[in-house]
Description:
The chain is α/β, with parallel strands linked by helices and 148 residues long. The chain has helices at residues 21-36, 98-109, 118-131; strands at 12-14, 39-44, 55-58, 61-67, 76-81, 85-91, 144-146. Strands 3-4-2-5-6-1-7 form a seven-stranded mixed β-sheet. The protein is globular and about 45 Å long.
Amino acid sequence: MSSSPGHVELDGAWWPLSRDLTQELPALADVLDPLWGRITRIAVNPRYWPILPPRIHVNGHVVKVGWFTTELDPHKILLLSGTSGRWDLLVVPPETTALPAARLMAAASADTGPPSTATALMAAEQAEDASSSYEADTRPADRMAVRM
């Protein structure tokens, strides 16, 4: 879990199927709520999300959804839990193909190497992807990778 507001370490990654937070957030929170403790708030940067729901229903309770334009990395989602604290996840863009997505998810959830911001990981992956060869677009079943 992260605690430093300046250079926030990532706790993992999430690869949503679409940019529709109304559909995507409940599925994410339904999985994480029992694992991390009751999720109370979710925050995103609205740059890549056309629709921001003010709240979602998760496992029988309401979770407030907020947004920050300058305080939150546009490639990250923040989840808050009353019992576990803060969790920062890299958001792998839905249009990302399988191999780059797998690399991003592994990098965001790795315990090794220096901590990196979500934007720094995305920039490094774009540079890597530009220099790599053809890849088949097969999407793995795993849509999330987190450090526990």
